[in-house]
Amino acid sequence: MERMAAQKPLELILARNLLTSISTPAFLVDQDAALVFYNEAAGALLGRSFEDVGRMSPEDWTSTYGPFKANGQPVELDELPTTRAVRDGRPAHAVFTIRSANGGKQEIESSAFPIVASEEGSSGAMIFFWPHDRSGRASP
Amino acid sequence: MRLKVWGARGSVPAPGPEMNRYGGNTSCVEITLASGEHIILDAGTGIRTLGLDLTSSPHVNILLTHLHLDHIQGLMFFPPCFRADADITIWGPASPEASLEDRVARYISAPLSPVEVRELPCDVSFRDTPPSEWQLGSATIRCEAINHRGPTLGFRITDGDTTLCYIPDHEPALGTVLADNEPEWISGYDLARDADLLIHDCQYADDEYPLHVGWGHSGMTDSLTFASRVGAQRLLLFHHDPLHADGFLDDLHAAARRRWAELGGDSASVEMAREGAVLDVEPVAAPAGISGA
Ligand SMILES: [Zn+2]
Ligand SMILES: [Zn+2]
User: Fold this and answer.
1) pLDDT, one tens digit for every residue, chain B (293 residues)
2) pTM here?
3) The domain spanning residue B257 has which CATH number?
């Protein structure tokens, strides 16, 4: 018999399967805003694959990768679009700086979408990333 | 627990002389608990003949995995529905869109049906499956959403020290590699783990699956890999494609046994569901006969 952590709800399993199959960098967080998966495209952006780091608490992943405000200060957990997506069940969009494993910084736009499958609230969120477009064009 | 298969076909009834041995009726399995009570899993066309077999004043619980037609089509032809002394409880997945009764009534109503649910002489009630375990007779039942098309459940039934798991429509391999994914990320894993008997979707042969990815069903090797990962002791391959005649299913069975042996299991513990088959399900002593990596 295999040892296992608590079974993930089906909607998170399907979300992970989707993220695995696309080349837009994306994170998957659970209902506690813990990072439970990111895809290869996100791994390329961050400089480390998810397999190397595994599940991370919100404190761990924000202190490792950011995001950081323009002044270099870390963004408060409560201000993160992921927190808002999970807690309020609302989408959120923001521009941040993140730090990759090699210390390089990158400005990104991120959109977080809550995953809601029951009346009890969201069971997590998907967060997609794009390099920040400085041309001033509206995002699609 | 004793189990009887009344319909093992998926998608649509497939009658015909070339289907005689495995049968053409759609999903329906009867469980007889140690206490003598009965639980019926799904109400495909196989439930019609099951109903003919039930004796006086039937009290039955029917557990519906989902409302695809091959899992409810027999309801309207279930003889106890037309008996005033019958007491029928139908359990199925909840939906924010409409009650279970209203969703089933889309089928048992005009113009698809000559009768309406409210006209049935039996005492019938519809219950959403609860999110936590519940008791039916001597059995503890648990259900979980699993990967199919549309909201679909699998059931885990434990009676005494015997556990059976029923997941007739399931595509756990969609978008992932079952052989090396972590257990917590495998649809249905927790539901099926260590079951003494797993009844599982095996709609397609391996060479048919690539043309049906995303249709909600499993190819043979994926069914076996899932069973192996969850440590199922015995596997009943179910939900046969309506195109699969007896000879084809014989060959698929032989291939499945070879594959199961390659996965480290006892080839005799893989069976093909056949209409009319009766199986006694008994606890298998640990350590598991086959277990995952
Ligand atoms: Zn089906
Ligand atoms: Zn189905």
Assistant:
1) 999 999 999 999 999 999 999 999 999 999 999 988 999 999 999 999 999 988 766 789 999 999 999 999 999 999 999 999 999 999 999 988 899 999 999 999 999 999 999 999 999 999 999 999 999 999 999 999 999 998 899 999 999 999 999 999 999 999 899 999 999 999 999 999 999 999 999 999 999 999 999 999 999 999 999 999 999 999 999 999 999 999 999 999 999 999 999 999 999 999 999 999 999 999 986 544 444 33
2) 0.89
3) 3.60.15.10
Nearest CA in chain B to A7: B184
Give a yes or no: residue B169 inside a domain.
Answer: yes
User: Terminus-to-terminus CA distance in chain A, angstroms?
Assistant: 47
Domain A2-131 -> CATH class:
alpha beta
Report residue B138: phi and psi, to 5°: -85, 0
The closest of B18, B82, B30 to B273, measured between CA atoms, is: B30
Coil/strand/helix, residue A112: strand
The domain locations on chain A are 2-131
User: Are the C-beta atoms of B63 and B165 separated by less than 8 Å?
Assistant: no
Decide if B112 is inside a domain: yes
Point out the residue among A3, A10, A20 whose CB comes nearest to the CB of B145: A10
Please give, rounded to a whole number of angstroms, the shortest distance from the CA of B292 to a CA of chain A: 6
Residue B199 domain flag: yes
| Structural domain count of chain B | 1
Residue B178 alpha carbon to ligand 2 centre in Å = 21
How far CA B192 is from CA of B90, B143, B279, in Å, comes to 23, 10, 18
What is the interface pTM, i.e. ipTM, of the complex? 0.76
- Of B262, B265, B272, B256, the closest CA to residue B290 belongs to B265
Q: B286 in a domain, yes or no?
A: no
Ligand nearest to the CA of B152: 2
- Residue pair A59/A91 in contact by the 8 Å Cβ criterion: no
Q: The domain containing residue B114 runs over which residues?
A: 2-280
The residue type of B276 is G
Give the distance from residue B264's alpha carbon to the nearest chain A alpha carbon, in angstroms: 14
CA dist B14 → B19, B44, B99, B118, B240 (Å): 7, 12, 30, 30, 10
Residues whose CB is less than 8 angstroms from the CB of residue B73 and which lie 6 or more positions away in sequence, other chains included = B13, B26, B43, B44, B45, B107
